[in-house]
TrEMBL record:
All copies of domain Putative zinc-finger, residue ranges: 3-36
One term of GO molecular function: zinc ion binding
Residue runs in coiled coils: none
A matching Pfam family: zf-HC2
Keyword entries, A-Z: Membrane, Metal-binding, Transmembrane, Transmembrane helix, Zinc, Zinc-finger
Keyword Cell inner membrane: no
Species for this entry: Desulfobaculum bizertense DSM 18034
Domain of life of the source: Bacteria
TM helices/strands, residue ranges: 97-119
Record-given protein name: Putative zinc-finger
Length: 141
């Protein structure tokens, strides 16, 4: 059993979904591996919170887990970094690009509201048609 196998099936192990033989292998690895036992402990803490507090616990992520997730995310962002074209821009150009994006967004919103205002009378009229049609259909034999 290596860490890779342990982590791949850690949820099944903690949920007691493994056969006894496998569960024993997992327990053994957990006893001997600091990394995996730490992870198992964290996951147990999370599921314990779910059991004790129900759904409310969904929003109360343990501080350790939160910090870890945040760190992993930051590392990911640093590794993949921002697009190279963005880094090559000067600060002035960057704010220019941002401003353009914001203006574009505002224009889109403004255009959207105008369009929906223009379209409303049309849909009112079509409602009228439907009402007229209903009346006429009612008079048919
Ligand atoms: Zn391990």
């Amino acid at each position: 059993m290596d860490c890779k196998e342990f982590q791949k099936n850690i949820h099944r192990y903690l949920d007691g979904e493994l056969a006894d033989v496998d569960a024993e292998r997992f327990a053994s690895h957990e006893r001997h591996c600091e990394l995996c036992s730490h992870q198992a402990e964290e996951l147990r803490a999370v599921s314990k919170m779910f059991e004790e507090d129900g759904l409310a616990a969904e929003f109360a992520v343990p501080e350790v887990l939160r910090a870890k997730t945040l760190r992993a995310f930051q590392e990911e962002v640093q590794e993949n970094s921002v697009p190279s074209w963005w880094s090559s821009l000067s600060t002035g150009l960057r704010s220019g690009v941002m401003a353009t994006a914001v203006v574009g967004l505002l224009l889109g919103v403004a255009l959207g509201s105008t369009l929906s205002a223009t379209l409303t009378p049309t849909s009112d009229r079509s409602l009228l048609y439907v009402a007229l049609l209903d009346e006429n259909v009612g008079e048919l034999p």
